[in-house]
Amino acid sequence: MLNEVHLNADPNTISTLDEPVLQTLLRDAKAIGRKLVVVVCPPLGDERELHDWDLWGPLFLCLMLASILTINASDDQGAAVFSAVFIFVWLGGLVVTINAKLLGSKIMFFQTYCAMGYCLAPICLGALFCWIIPWFFVNLLLCVIAWAWACWAALRFFRNTVNADREVLVVYPVGLFYVFFTWMVLVGI
Predict the structure, then answer these.
(1) CA quadruple 133, 139, 142, 146: dihedral positive or negative?
(2) Are 141 and 125 within 8 A, CB to CB?
(3) What's the mean pLDDT in 10-39?
(4) Which contiguous run of DSSP H or E holds residue 136?
(5) For the segment 80-125, what is each residue's pLDDT rounded down to a tens digit?
(6) Do 65 and 122 meet the contact criterion of CB atoms below 8 Å apart?
(7) Which of 40, 62, 125, 155 has the most CB atoms in a 10 Å sphere around its CB?
(8) What is the DSSP string of 37-68?
(9) pLDDT-derived band of residue 162, with 50, 70 and 90 as boundaries?
């Protein structure tokens, strides 16, 4: 038969082609949750989770951050803010990822992109609290904590992926990436 495909695979191997859509969505949601635990509460998570990359979690966090900042923006700027946040998350992540790869990072391109996206979680939480709390100095403190938390989570991922003498060159743009979004949250763009 010309149309037959024979695979010598283990019968216990999970095939997403044969599983129901709901089961696939639940499996992916659990994987996103495990990766968020690695970033949000590091002692409870396994750092190797971020090496199994996906882009669903970063997309969700990007949409969450863009939505919160859009709600905070004035009515005539809402669409522009949403678009700008969305574009800056993906282009900024691309620039940081390319920088890491050019400096000799040992991890794959999409693993870096995935980790950068998941490390937006503290900034999203900070944006949510800043949306609820109206006091500037409390928001400033929350933003500093969210930025440090995001950088710490990213540093844990990037540590030992490049030579020790180049580690600062990889982490510095990551810090700038998160400073940009933290600033947007603080000023309520």
Answers:
(1) positive
(2) no
(3) 79
(4) helix 136-158
(5) 889 999 899 989 989 998 998 898 888 888 888 888 888 999 999 9
(6) no
(7) 62
(8) HHHHSGGGS-GGGGGS--SHHHHHHHHHHHHH
(9) confident
Q: How far apart are the first and last CA of the chain?
A: 61
The reported pLDDT for the residue numbered 16 is 65
Q: DSSP 3-state assignment of 133?
A: coil
Q: At which residue do the structure tokens 């969305």 appear?
A: 86
Tokens describing residue 178: 């998160």
Structure tokens belonging to residue 36: 């968020």
Q: What is the pLDDT of residue 83?
A: 92
Domain boundaries, given as residue ranges, for the chain: 54-187
* Backbone phi and psi for residue 31, each to the nearest 5 degrees, phi listed first: -65, -40
Read off the amino acid at residue 113: Y
| Distance of alpha carbon 86 from the chain centroid | 12
